[in-house]
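Example record used in the benchmark description.
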Amino acid sequence: MRALVLWLILGSLAWGQATKEPAPIYYLLWFDTEDYITPASDDAALRLAQELDKLGVRATFKVVGEKARVLEQRGRRDVIQALARHDIGYHSNNHSIPPSPAVYLRPLGWLEGAAEFERREGPGAKDVARIFGQTPSCYGQPGNSWGPQSTLALRRMGIPTYMDEARQVGLNQQPFWYGGVLHVLNLRQFSPRANLNAPADLAEGIQKFDAAVAELRQRGGPGFIQSYYHPTEWVTTAFWDGVNFGRGRYTAPADYRQPQARTPEATAQAYRIFLDFIRHVQKTPGIRFVTARELPILLADPVTRPTAAEARAQFRDRIDLRGPHSAADLLLALLGITPRYVDGPSERVATTAKADITRAQFDYAKRQAIAHIEQTGRLPSHVFIESATLSLGDFASMLAYDDGSTPQVALRQGQLAFERHIATDGRKTFDWVIHPEGFDGSALLELGRLQAWTLKPARVR
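Model output (structure tokens):
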């Protein structure tokens, strides 16, 4: 009898595993709604919202502040109401009117840059909220105009998610937490699109989408795919900003030039291709459409509780994120600080200490580091040993090896392995037709590396 019962139980488990539904794949569809120069782009946004309504699909429309104001000035309540039935995100105040975010953020530090971003971009976010009746669910940068200071400003502005496609920072081509803000960024192969210009290429777009689904299935867990477009793509053959603000050129509104229009036939073709692509996504088993507004509910809170033992194990190997924990989470555990979110350091300071450090000196440095974190909400760039300095990385490595039992603490060099997730090419990653010729964002990437202490994966609850 026991053998029969055991056989029935094992058979039931095997059947359950065989019939278990695959982990869901979440699909984000979003539109950078930005062209305030071309009136036909208003109608394109309207039609896209209406066509998606017919399919029962909700998308995220990331709206530029000036676009929202222009819609209001033109009396396009029909467009505003149609988009508001979907999800509304934010796509900067003026998008391409110089200076763009990376240009004005590059010479500024962490705190100054956050204040300047909020000063310049805050009014547009308020206008979008007022006109569409909802606080923006997310922010996405114009073009490649990225700056890490935006994360601090977005938290102050009440915008919880950063959603775009760029290469400055990323983690395994899936969502992540960075700077205390949920990011859907740098998904690369998981950002398939259908080419609106060639019906023959629809099959290629579908193939890329199916390949992304297959890859996430292979990984075995929930995953995210996104597709993004611009409503103006349906009505123009060139982008509105390139013809007016190329290479940082300012053009007054009275002198705006219209981009070349698509033919009616090309516009109709673009809608057919797009809608066929979305229908394919819809009929793919296990796909769940979500908007940016749903992401903070869907994905886990960034505060984690690692143990000091976990932190020592990781930092003795290299200073890196570990499982769901950021390097900052692990450092707080080593210091015995209650788990919380903290920003990364605001600058990089090198070690100047030359010899082993006494117990009294090291314990004093620990107390000062704890006080800095608790008083400022960010990690210190360094600690002092008398008048000499220890870099934050070296200090973290020494904490990992120190058991508190020796009269001296050996000087160690910490390897900041998490910095590999930040791009290194300041020209290539900021290459955008609106940036000045030869623009180099290396200073922004360096500041981004400092904030990579906060980087960790975003996991479905």
